[in-house]
User: Which sequence fits this backbone?
DNA sequence: CTCCTTCGTAACAGACTAGGTTACCAATTC
DNA sequence: GAATTGGTAACCTAGTCTGTTACGAAGGAG
């Protein structure tokens, strides 16, 4: 499965919550829209909660709701909450330090990759959950 | 392993070839710098060759060399050659079409994600293999 | 106060991915 | 023709992720 898998699922979860403002939705309700298991949704919501994007309430009549207005939640925040960003990934084996290439390729590449990832995040930050909801309603 | 793994390895391979201009390097030589198996390197080089970035020669005294000057190879081309880009990845299970969110979230998100990936690729396209080699030599 | 609902999380099974390895054929040079 | 090297298939292994079950913690309903 691709790397955006958790991210797209997390946005889906947030969109479901945004579609029912002021209500507490159970993980089972959200899981029905995702067509998956409630525990999978709870795992996503735990990450979103740790990032301060959603609030949860336990017990009877409990559930999840957005912690902020949809216009104050951008896609970069969701991606940051869900995709544990460990920086650029290199091969499991460290390169041979004998050659100049092997010795310095990783930090050099890491800088260029980080620059590209920053550009990607900036583009995601331009889109809020409210924008997503607007596009969703335009499609329907 | 992260998604950039094949990409970083491919850039490493190209950098090794660029460090020995006019020579044909065997997969075993390149693999020594990567500290991995020759077959893994050959798989990477096969993808790079299909994209027209490297040329191979079989038989005795055969090997690989860059097909263009390092200044004419940018990181976006390497990423495109190696990372089979299947577009945004969604959850294995299709969302429930009962709700508006589940029915239209995927195409809406795909557009926003594609915009972000385009920004990332554009940043990678600004860096050529010659830039990488220059930075490498500056570090040494 | 007790029970029921729901979140929070650990633990485990299954599918899938990717790297590593071996093996063998094709092509090229000497 | 023999040796070398790329090209590629087949398989093994390790790691990751989803899905599932299970159980404890928290909070409301009666």
Assistant:
């Amino acid at each position: 499965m691709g790397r955006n898998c958790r991210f797209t699922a997390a946005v889906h979860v947030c969109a479901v919550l945004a579609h029912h403002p002021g209500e507490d939705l159970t993980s089972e309700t959200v899981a029905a829209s995702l067509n998956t298991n409630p525990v999978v949704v709870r795992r996503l919501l735990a990450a979103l909660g740790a990032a301060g994007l959603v609030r949860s309430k336990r017990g009877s009549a409990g559930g999840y709701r957005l912690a902020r207005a949809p216009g104050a939640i951008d896609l970069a925040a969701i991606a940051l909450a869900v995709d544990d960003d460990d920086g650029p990934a290199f091969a499991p084996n460290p390169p041979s330090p004998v050659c100049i290439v092997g010795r310095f390729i990783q930090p050099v590449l890491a800088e260029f990759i980080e620059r590209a990832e920053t550009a990607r995040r900036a583009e995601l930050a331009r889109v809020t959950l409210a924008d997503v909801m607007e596009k969703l309603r335009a499609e329907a």
